[in-house]
Each structure stands twice: as C-alpha cells, then as structure tokens.
Amino acid sequence: MLQQLIDGFGTALTPTHLALAALGVLLGTAIGVLPGIGPAMAVALLLPVTYGMEPTAAFIMFAGIYYGGMFGGSTTSILLNTPGESFSVVAAIDGNPMARKGRGAQALAAAAIGHFVGGILGTMALVLLAPIIAKYAVDIGAPDLFAIMVLAFIGVTSVLGNSRIRGVASLLIGLTIGLVGLDEMTGQSRLTFGSLHLADGIDVVIVAVALFAVGESLWVAAHLRRNTFKPIPVGRPWLSRADLKRTWKPWLRGPVIGFPFGAIPAGGAEIPTFLSYLTEKRLSKHKDEFGKGAIEGVAGPEAAASSSAAGTLVSMLTLGLPTTAVAAVMLAAFQQYGIQPGPLLFERESKLVWGLIASLFVGLTLLLVLNLPLAPLWAKLLRIPRPYLYAGILFFASVGAYAVNADIFDLLVMFVIGLIGFAMRRYGLPVLPAIIGVILGPAAEQQMRRALQLSDGSLTGLVNTPFAIVVYVIILVILFFPVIKRFLPARPTAPEAEPKDKVDA
C-alpha cells in the first residue's frame, strides 16, 4: 500500500498534474466564495471541460476543486455571514463575530489550517482504514441514522442560543420548509399550494442563502440609519501563541468526528460540523465566547468538514455509494470514462486511484500555501462601505439562487424566506436550527419511515439496535441534564475564598 501511494505521488507531482491541482484549488476557492455556487456545482460545470483529458488528470483537478470549494464556502460564511454550502453554515456562528471584531484574517487562517490538518488526517485515514470503514459502514441501518439525526436536532436546540424554546421554534420552521414538495414514498404534494414550481421542494442552498445573506442584509439595512458603522480593521493573518493554544486540540478532534461520518452511507459534512461545534463548546474553557467569536468554534468544525470530505471518498471508491453531491458528480465522471467504482476499483484502476489519493495531499498543501497569505486580501471585503457590500451580497445571492435551477421562481422563494430570516432576527430566534431542520429533516423522515416499515409500524423498530440505544441514552442525558444537575452535589468553595471575603469586609 505504501509503495502504491509513493507511485501515486509520482503521478500527482508531474508538472502537468501539479498545475491542474493548483488550477483546481484556485477555481474551487473562487467559485466557492460565491453564495450558492459550491464545489458540487463547480465540478458539474467543469465536467464537460474535461472530456478531452485523461481520467487521472481530470480527477486530480476535481480533487483541487473539491477542497478549494469547501474553503471558499467557509470564507463567505466567516466574512459575510453568507454560507457558500450547507456544511459551511457552522463557520458563520463564531467566524463572523470574529470578523466583526477585526479578527477576520485570524478566523480565515484558523479555517485554512483546520482544512489542511483535517484533510491530511482524513486522507491518511482513507489510505489506512478504507476497507475497514467500508465494511462497518454497510451495517449501519435506518434506525441508527435516524437516531444520529435526532441527536443533531436536540444538540443544536439545546446548546445554541439563550433559549431552548426559541431554538425549538427555529427548528420547527426549518422542518416545515423541508416538508415542501412531493412525498418521496407516496407522491402526495405537501405545502405546495398547487404550484408546480414547489413540487421538487426548496433547495437547501436557496434556504441557507435566504436566511443568512438576505436576512442579514435586510437586518443591516433596517439599522443603517440608526447606527454608524465604522470600518473594520483587517488584522494580520498569523495566529498568536494564545490562538494556537486554543486551536490545536480542536484541529485534532475535528477529524475524529468528521471522517467516520463522511465514510458512512448517507453521511456528509453537515452532521459532523454541528457535532464538532457542540463538542468544542462543551470542552472549552471559554464557553461565554461561543457565538460571540470563539476561535475554537471555527477551527474544530472546519477540520471536521475537511476530514469528512476525505471520508466521503471511502464509500464512493470502495462501494460506489456517493454520500454527498460532489461525490455523486465524481461518480458520474467515473462512469463517463467507463470506470465503475467498487471493491475491484483499487485492482483494476490502481494508478488512477492512488494518483487521486496522492493529489488530495498535494491539493491540501496548495490550499494552505495559496490561501493563508490571501487571508488579509479576503478580509478586506469587510472594509467596503456597508450599503455597497450588502448590495453586492444580495446580487451574488440572487445569482447563486438563480443558478441552482435557472428559475425566476427560486428568486421569489429566496426573498420570502429572507423576510422570515429578518423576522427571526427581530424576535431573537437563532438561524442555525432552521438550517439544520431543512438539511436533515427530509433525510430524518425518510430513515424513520424505513425503520418503521421494517418493523411493520412498531415503534420498537426505532430502538432495535445497540447503536441506536446508545444514541438515545445520550439524547436523554442532554435533555434532562438541567434537572439532573440540581441533584448533583455542589462544588466545594475554594479555600482561598474566605480570606478574600475578610479582606473585602
């Protein structure tokens, strides 16, 4: 295996393939910065361009686009509170407050290094653990996946925001939006109001762009006359010693969460980024900074997202199962060349596969080398006057929403949901639970119905596996922890507190 990887580096490091990897990283980052146009669409748009290229060169370029697009989506989340992809939603929670405080360059640096560390560790795990992960991933059933999604719902409504009730209300808004369209199992229309445009549902990208970009733009516009906004300093791209002390552990924890979730069928980067954020908030000594600019809230989820991207290649290469939109497009590219991913792919197309895996290491290194010095340049977007900046955000958001289906109706839907996002900000409802509801709601419903079908409608079908039982126990602990905490013994008072009180007296 090591010899094959060395041969793969021999393939990836040729001048032509190295140039294609660099071009892919630059194109992926540039396209990922545009709201609504992420790596999946970038790969899809560039697929016809590669018709005349050999398969190895095409997939090396796709690998660069993949990671570059992921970092580009994080850039808009951090600087403009406008996610380029659904998995970059979490980066906005603390990345955008950091940018508002003049630490946008540091947030981008933490994200870039997080992508590099997570991607390197994830790709190493892909090399070493792909056969094992693929073997166990097949055994994960509908009850297990449904339990994981319920854990994501409960976790995000319990930890984010100041009120659980508001978190649940936001989640219900997202679940309702996720119901729009035709029922996948019965074909019955739901909440379409007789419109054929809504029969296919509302795309997640449109909802994310509407709630974040449009809602934020309307909120800022409503306060422009009331508040005088000062230019935000750009800051330096290098992390201080204190920043490194707070980020190195999240960088290492993120891949542990991200890679397994990326490898399982029906996985992806959304759930692990949410869980990584919740984990970092639980473990951090700076809990009060989360939601206000905690650098751990950027470092951990970004490392988890990058390692999850490597994990998705496990199912795609060894099982032929795409778990993300990018993997689905890459699967179509394999088929375009007459190559069928599966257990025999490593034997039949050894040069291509190991060249692709080696190019992931090369692409990640290029991503760090190219984007770390560019962090201050990206951060200068914040120095644009607010009216022009948010007018530009609305323009690119509209372009991104229209590009999803090339339908004017999507623009109307985007602005209606943007008004909902404005109202949510007005009444203090967190936006993230709504996004999670839209992303995971339909998938959770599908897995729940599959589990119930297998058990002939019995609710025991949702808890008939050890994995699902463990997850539900964790959910109960999260729900009832405030009640349990009351019965726990109080912490003893520190010995030095008494002399201090006497001095004050």
TrEMBL record:
Family matches, as InterPro entries: DUF112_TM (IPR002823)
Membrane spanning stretches: 20-47, 59-80, 107-134, 140-160, 165-182, 202-222, 313-334, 354-375, 387-405, 411-440, 461-484
Record-annotated DUF112 domain positions: 18-436
Sorted UniProt keywords: Membrane, Transmembrane, Transmembrane helix
Alphabetized Pfam families for the sequence: TctA
Protein name as it appears in the record: DUF112 domain-containing protein
